[in-house]
């Protein structure tokens, strides 16, 4: 396999797959949302996503984006083409990460993006130059700001009786659904729907403990269409039926 450099346009259509080779995705225009092994990120101009061999990933761009994509050949190509740089490139390609380019690296990416990419010599030398310049780069610093759980909780509490969509929470966080899913997994070990379900059931437990409302009415208030489905969910979450949980929490 020879290295390939291609210009690719991404849209809101979600792509989810893996490759039998490593890949580098360089941002040129717009923003591309990524989820790689449960960790989310975004690629903008001056940014690179490193995708090791056989790493499952998903990506999409609600507003559209353009990227330069380098498909990296096998180990033999690394050794033959990069010489003393091969070990550093191997380490770079060993784990998923997001890297930020400096000005000169960005200029190289833009120059290659405007070149004749189907020329084998440009693809070969461009791949070597890109990998060599990336050796020793540090992963981009991830933003320390956590998801707005307070806003999520207030929204769930207000609308608990109605159908709730993950897209509603994504809008509150101002990120894509794919990235929201990845951030939830990374920050609290739950999917967004698991989080919504857990919040609803905690509300239900409070209503069982603090009110005399019938169980069927509590079920409706927290978004369950049937009392039996509500009872099954409570049993799975707390190990007791709603009636038993009410007695337990009230010390009876």
TrEMBL record:
It is found in: Cytoplasm. Its main location: cytoplasm. It holds the Pfam family HTH_18. One of its GO terms (molecular function) is sequence-specific DNA binding. GO terms for biological process: positive regulation of metabolic process. Keywords: DNA-binding, Transcription, Transcription regulation. GO terms for cellular component: cytoplasm. It comes from the Bacteria. Residues 150-248 form the HTH araC/xylS-type domain. InterPro entries: AraC_XylS_family_regulators, Homeodomain-like_sf, HTH_AraC, HTH_AraC-typ_CS, RmlC-like_jellyroll, RmlC_Cupin_sf. PANTHER family: HTH-TYPE TRANSCRIPTIONAL ACTIVATOR RHAS-RELATED, TRANSCRIPTIONAL ACTIVATOR FEAR. Regulatory protein of the TOL plasmid xyl operons. XylS activates the xylXYZLTEGFJQKIH operon required for the degradation of toluene, m-xylene and p-xylene. This is AraC-type DNA-binding protein. It comes from Pseudomonas brenneri. The lineage of its organism: Bacteria, Pseudomonadati, Pseudomonadota, Gammaproteobacteria, Pseudomonadales.
């Amino acid at each position: 396999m020879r290295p390939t450099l291609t210009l690719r346009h991404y849209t809101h259509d979600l792509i989810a797959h893996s490759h039998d080779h490593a890949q580098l995705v360089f941002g040129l225009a717009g923003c591309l949302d990524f989820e790689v092994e449960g960790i989310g990120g975004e690629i903008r101009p001056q940014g690179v996503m490193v995708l090791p061999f056989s790493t499952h990933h998903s990506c999409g761009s609600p507003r559209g984006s353009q990227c330069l994509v380098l498909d990296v050949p096998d180990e033999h190509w690394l050794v033959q083409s990069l010489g003393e740089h091969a070990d550093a490139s191997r380490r770079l390609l060993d784990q998923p990460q997001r890297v930020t380019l400096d000005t000169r690296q960005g200029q190289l990416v833009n120059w290659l993006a405007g070149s004749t990419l189907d020329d084998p010599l440009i693809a070969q030398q461009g791949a070597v130059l890109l990998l060599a310049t990336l050796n020793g780069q540090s992963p981009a610093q991830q933003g320390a700001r956590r998801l707005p759980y307070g806003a999520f909780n207030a929204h769930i509490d207000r609308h608990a009786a109605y159908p709730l969509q993950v897209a509603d929470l994504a809008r509150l966080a101002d990120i894509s659904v794919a990235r929201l899913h990845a951030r939830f997994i990374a920050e609290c070990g739950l999917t967004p729907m698991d989080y919504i379900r857990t919040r609803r059931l905690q509300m239900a437990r409070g209503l069982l403990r603090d009110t005399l409302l019938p169980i069927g009415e509590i079920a409706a208030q927290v978004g369950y269409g049937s009392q039996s489905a509500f009872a099954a969910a409570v049993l799975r979450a707390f190990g007791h039926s709603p009636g038993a949980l009410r007695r337990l929490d009230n010390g009876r």
